[in-house]
Amino acid sequence: MDHHVATFWYVGTDDPSAPIRSGHPSDPGFARRLLSRLHPTVTLASLGMFPLNRSASAGPGEVYVGSYPGLTVVQTQLDRPVLPSATDETWLRLVEAPTVLMFSHDPDDGISGFARWESGRLVRSFAGADDRIVEDEGMPLPFERPYWAGEFPPEGADDTPLALPFSPSSLLHAAHRDWLGFDLSPGGLDVPVHGFATDGRREVRQRTAPTGAAVHVVGSPGRAELHAASRRDSRPASRDAGAASPYADDDYERAPLVPAVARASSPVTGAVRRIAGVVGDAVRRAGGAMNRRLANRR
Known about the structure:
It contains nine helices and eleven strands.
């Protein structure tokens, strides 16, 4: 079955490049809400956040979403040939925006295409390969004129009698620059997106062990940790420099290790011990008095 990568831009601002140039982060909450409407019965698995312009295109069962003020981008694979004018209404109404842009590319057939909708009406659509036109809907826009005039001929055009006066992929990039104000290229502006899998794969979370000594949830080090600490303290400084705790991966809460001597000499600990001593003396005196009364009764 034919398939290709499609990138949709939902534009609701006069300057689409502004949030990208300002480094505005993408909204992960909006991305999840959007995909929950698009795939209501699917459990989404996060693929992380990365720049769209410097990552591989979305693969099968993957969707990349970036959401910024007045601008949303969605990239995914469509199981159909590149024919922008026949785009399903689901994609055109996915995000409420006055302008919807679409850029498609099929590397297997070498077909590139783009389209623009204004208030739901198709304004311009083009798709083709170096040697043929797949579709050409609407009047060519001003940015297209030098390409149709042959000012940017593709490489090897002289060897292909049916070659177009331009490369459709070059015209796609020209449309991207004219409509969005930037080109989606590795050396261009970084476009942060959140990736999700919709094919049921398990979510892979990167686990980074917290730093610091392992401390039990009761708030004080256990015997094993104290033993490890005493061994580290007894080593020469040159050997101990930079040594990590052998319990660094224990499944405990992490906190700096507090020496037992420091805890024993703290004011709070001393007060608790004094109170415990007073209570103990009172209990012992009460016990002695009770024993004497019992002895007198006998």
